[in-house]
Amino acid sequence: MKKNPIPDDMLTPPMLIGHISRMQRCTLRSRENDPIMTQNSCRSLLFCLSHEEGMTQLELSRRAGLKPPTVSVALKHLEDEGYIVREVDADDKRAARVFLSDKGHALERENTERFNRVDDEMMNGFSDEEIVLLRKMLLRIRDNLSNPKGKNE
User: Fold this and answer.
1) Most C-beta atoms within 10 A of its C-beta, which of 15, 107, 121, 137?
2) How many CB atoms lie within 10 A of CB 13?
3) What gap in Å lies between CA 129 and CA 19, rounded to an integer?
4) Contact 44, 67 (CB under 8 A)
5) Torsion over CA: 128, 134, 137, 143 (sign)
6) What do you get for the CA distance between the two ends of the chain, in Å?
7) With contact defined as beta carbons under 8 Å apart, do 83 and 69 qualify?
8) Tens of pLDDT, residues 69-121
9) Hey, what domains does the chain have and what are their CATH numbers?
10) Separation of alpha carbons 26 and 146, rounded Å
């Protein structure tokens, strides 16, 4: 990996977060076995479905934080490759519910193992207490961006 051109003492915490996030995505992509998983949108959708199957496309879009057209294209790719199946909603025939296929479940298990290995590499040398503290600080940063000061006050 290339050396960062900005000296470490000039990197702000938000700059480091962005840099680390890019490095993590590149590392995960380089270890993918299936080309479809190099697309972040497909990876995000599979992750969401592994935690809650049977969502509609719109629900999945909201949960994954992706725009509906992005979800539509990604689901088409995942369906064409046999990773998901869509079933018509019993109560609302206009809606389709999305489920992982057996192949999708197998891929998500592989992805989880890959993510866990990369997570372990990233957190190597950190104590449990440091990990808890870092998580709290990152959650606070996320919440600050979700609810900027002055908003809803």
Assistant:
1) 107
2) 10
3) 24
4) no
5) negative
6) 44
7) no
8) 999 999 999 999 999 999 998 888 888 999 999 999 999 998 888 889 999 99
9) 31-114 (1.10.10.10)
10) 26
